[in-house]
Amino acid sequence: MERHDTGHGEGLAQDLEAIAGRMIARRRALALLAGVGTSAALASCGGDESSASTASSGTTTSSSSSSSSTSTGSSSSTSSTSSSSGGTSASACVADPSETNGPYPADGTNTASGATSNVLSQSGVVRSDIRSSFIGSTATADGVQLQLVLQLVDVSDGCAPVVGAAVYVWHCDAQGRYSLYSSGVTTESYLRGVQVTDSEGKVTFTTIYPACYDGRWPHIHFEVFTGGLTAASTGRTATLISQLAMPAAVNTAIYSSDTRYTASIANYNAVSLSADNVFGDNSSAELAQMTPALSGSVSAGYTGTALIGIA
């Protein structure tokens, strides 16, 4: 997906001060929320992600219908404790493919109902625990806890760790809603956050497991900015935009036993990884790396890792 460089002010550089203790001014928070509040007319769950935001015009172009499959979601276990075979070691890596950032990135690249939101320009977005809102509200998204370690590696340099890169992660909640966009959560900013890779190329996010909404395999969005925080003022400057495919066994375990994800059951039974409009054209090696390796249980939560390869 083509990206264009456009300036958006100081951006995430302001978060360096926030880490030192400076909190976002409430007036600024309310201003942002007033802008994105007009997005409430959007569907309450996630939309079609088969096409990306149009960066040059600032609008989102999406298909009139979602891509879905009548085949059932593949799974190998229905037990509450499960693990995935996804993920690869840092000694063997492939370049992650570029994927759409979808209609709900809140990275300054798209417009919804005439309003543009960009959390990447907001103090407070640099955080490891992304379960709570950080703009105006402090509400926390409810769901099965997920702690995910992402390791960024350079495919052209023997899978060496990429140090000092900013990684922006976002995804839907347990009801399939995206904060700042979906009806009922337009004033929330949860399940969005940025971390900077350490000396091993790693970042850690504490979040909740995403739902499965109509027409898509369960997934987590991410953007990588190899220029670090100072470069990450907008999604237009991202080095890589892609997604993680959630492992089938864990999807089945959570959706079939946790009532907070009841709406996901029918949606998940109607999709498959091979027919997904984002993951369906990826190679087996790419899919293996894009699928986090998770362990844990529905009651205790899940932990795991995923490798992200930069070409």
Protein architecture, described:
With 311 residues, the protein is of the alpha+beta class. It has a single domain (11-57, 73-310), classed as Aromatic compound dioxygenase (Protocatechuate 3,4-Dioxygenase, subunit A). It contains five helices and twelve strands. The relative contact order is 0.24. Pfam families: Dioxygenase_C.
CATH homologous group name: Aromatic compound dioxygenase
Q: Residue share in helices?
A: 10-25%
The tally of helices reads: 5
- Mean pLDDT across all residues, rounded? 81
Q: Do you know the CATH topology?
A: Protocatechuate 3,4-Dioxygenase, subunit A
Can you identify the CATH class?
Mainly Beta
Largest sheet: number of strands, sense, barrel closure:
6 strands, mixed
> Mind telling me which CATH architecture this is?
Sandwich
* Backbone CA Rg: 18 Å
Total number of strands: 12
List SSEs in N-to-C order.
HHEEEEEEEEEEHHHEE
Q: How many domain regions?
A: 1
Organism: Novosphingobium soli
Domain Intradiol ring-cleavage dioxygenases: 142-215
GO molecular function: dioxygenase activity
InterPro entries: Intradiol_dOase_C, Intradiol_dOase_core, TAT_signal
